[in-house]
Write a structure and sequence with these properties.
Blueprint (H helix, E strand, L loop, with lengths): L19 H11 L6 H6 L23 H7 L3 H5 L15 E4 L2 E4 L12 H6 L60 H12 L22 H12 L18 H16 L3 H12 L9 H6 L1 H8 L9 H13 L15 E3 H8 L3 H9 L5 E6 L2 E7 H13 L1 E2 H8 L3 H9 L18 E2 L1 H12 L7 H4 L4 H5 L9 H9 L10 H4 L5
Antiparallel strand pairs: 1-2, 3-5, 4-5, 6-7
Helix pairs in contact: 6-8, 8-9, 16-17
This protein binds zinc ion (2 copies).
Amino acid sequence: MTDVHPRLLVTTPPKPDESLTGYLVRLSALNHYEKLVWILSMAGLGKGSSNWRWPALAFCPTVELKRLSELLALDLPALDALRYPPAETTGHGMGTHLFFGAPVPRNVIQPQTPKACPECLKESQHCRRIWDFKLVTCCPTHGCLLVDRCTDCGKQLKWYRPAASMCACGFDLRRAPRTSMNDAASRLCDMLCGVCGFPAVPEGEVARGDNPLATLNLEQFVTAVLFISGRMIVHGTMMGGGLPSLSNRETHDLMLRTASIFEGWPDRFYDFLEYERSRPRCRTRAGIMDSQFGNFYGSLFAHARLSHASFDFFRLGFAGYLELCGEGHHVKRMKLSLKYITRYAALRRLGLDQKRLGRFISQGRLKMVTLKGWRGERVLVEAESVEKLREELRRLLGSSEAAKCLGVHRGVILKLVAAGCLKAVRGPSIDGSKGLKFDPRDVENLMRSITNRLPECDPLFKHCPDLRTAVNRFGHPKLGLVRNIKAIVAGKLLPIGSSPEAQSHSPS
Ligand SMILES: [Zn+2]
Ligand SMILES: [Zn+2]
């Protein structure tokens, strides 16, 4: 490797549904490399870093992929798009990562213990991204159980193997027997894949009925499933604790028990509550519900992850159960829709620190209330305002995304900010957050402030692909892009060929 920028002999772009680790496996095989570690070490990611056994490159944004991108002849953003980056909004090492655009706990993204569908591999020998999803145990296309263990050597599949369709022992995974599945867990898989954006399974095959999961988005779906499944396994938590050590078969069985509760809603949920109530626990807790249902009750009515109104079905189901047991008098004291959550829960939900949370409160964007309870006065945050702010923060654009929207280089964005043409809503000097963040409306307005000055007959008036093209419609392009923009916005530069009279017709 004397070349400064070594490049693989055979390169190919990733398939649209391919996983990062699977892509590396495929490229290694295409180049007839004996071991995948060759590619990793050439990219400076090999032994000595955690990338070998644990594919940290899929999760950690600090793992430098520049050399790998040169090696694969793939531009960095395209390679970066294959990763599962930390979801910024949840911060604080709470371990959620973006998966199909939604923040989900890292425990449910498992590229290091791979699975595969033998039928899919027959169609194309590449690893699908959806197989990295721990909760997806069946193939959404072929309806068969995914394979995570070699039928020949009996060992667990490894992500670093000779080819996507080959076990380390040389067994062709396409020859693995097909185990067709048609149970509640496979239907749950279909629904999950549906919210991940997979083509919907034909109507009738998915038993939705009264299934409360049917109305949830991916993040909420995972939360609801983990809330129930986490109660059924050792070390189970709402963040998917206890899941990584389960085989695909074991996960499938767990999903089967979980899915049947949602399918038979609310009757099977009542059975589940009976089971929760019967579990041995310390009975000396403060409230009667706490002593009977333990932390299940606490989570249901106070956990930040369940504070969204879309989880009210759990609380209403719980109330329905108490009514059925003749204990409806307890329901009166319950807040079936979580109107208020604690300041700490809001802080965790938004992934902010105390200082930044305080700033949003003083701006009035988080509504606070003081409620009198049996423990004295408590200052709480209105749950709805937390969700609203969370949605707003999630929609904000980073510098690169803003640059993409405007069709300019990222450096231009920084210059626009310095020149006062574009205002960041979050940033190191604004609220102490790491990078600059922009309101998508401000970015759009900047573009509109240029294109609105063009005559209406100009095609760019309606749609403009990038800022530079719009600015080029005006005179004096040599001033430089940012100075031109300032001049255009100030009305000092007119579209080429227009007279000052024509200018007066366009909005100013
Ligand atoms: Zn398949
Ligand atoms: Zn094998």
